[in-house]
Design brief:
By secondary structure, the chain is α/β, with parallel strands linked by helices. It has 9 helices and 5 strands.
Length: 204
């Protein structure tokens, strides 16, 4: 059976809710901090110990837009190995465009739009500070904010981009196009805070 790929602001919650409606969850969602190679091994382990019950076993895996390349390779093999088994695997991602093509081509995507109560977890004070510093072309403050958030630099960039969409007066301007072209390749979390700093400097 072709796996479902939930994507959008409410993707994780929708995937978990759908899993519960389908059957019984074998455990907590796998890969919440970014899918790693060991997570693929954990999927195989759980699938091999699914037990017996009236409802089919289900696993929730994601976010795939923040998975390492090695983890994606392992997940692809795992999906192929478990395709004919009893375990249903539901995948999720915040950003569909950040999921590699080999995963997208093997799944059915389901968009999970925000509701009126939803607020982005990425639009925090640090992301706002970075957006305002970028708007003023304040290089020193941009570098300071990125350095202070170096462990969560990918989330910082997500929030920064969302502030641009929400607050910038001209989304079609050359400056917004330039920063988007430089920052977008980093939204999958591959790189480091130094890559984030370099991308912003190149776009300013």
């Amino acid at each position: 059976m072709t796996p479902l790929l939930f994507h959008g602001p409410l993707a994780r919650g929708e995937a978990v809710a759908h899993a519960r409606s389908l059957g019984r969850l074998l455990g907590d969602p796998i890969g919440d901090t970014g899918l790693k190679v060991d997570d693929s091994r954990e999927i195989v382990r759980l699938a091999g110990n699914a037990g017996v019950g009236d409802k089919p076993p289900v696993l929730v895996v994601g976010p795939l837009d923040r998975a390492t390349p090695e983890a994606v390779d392992g997940l692809l093999k795992t999906l192929e190995d478990l395709a004919d088994g009893p375990v249903r695997i539901l995948l999720w991602a915040d950003f569909y465009g950040g999921v590699i093509g080999t995963i997208r081509s093997r799944t059915l995507d389901r968009w999970c739009p925000p509701d009126e109560r939803w607020t982005s977890p990425f639009m925090d004070d640090n992301a706002r500070a970075l957006y305002r510093a970028w708007s003023k072309k304040d290089v020193a403050t941009c570098l300071s904010v990125i350095h202070a958030s170096q462990r969560d630099w990918a989330a910082l960039l997500h929030g920064f981009c969302e502030f641009i969409v929400e607050e910038h007066p001209d989304l079609g301007s050359p400056e917004t196009t330039a920063v988007w072209n430089h920052v977008r390749p980093l939204l999958d979390g591959r790189g480091s805070h130094l890559c984030a700093a370099a991308a912003l400097l190149e776009a300013m």
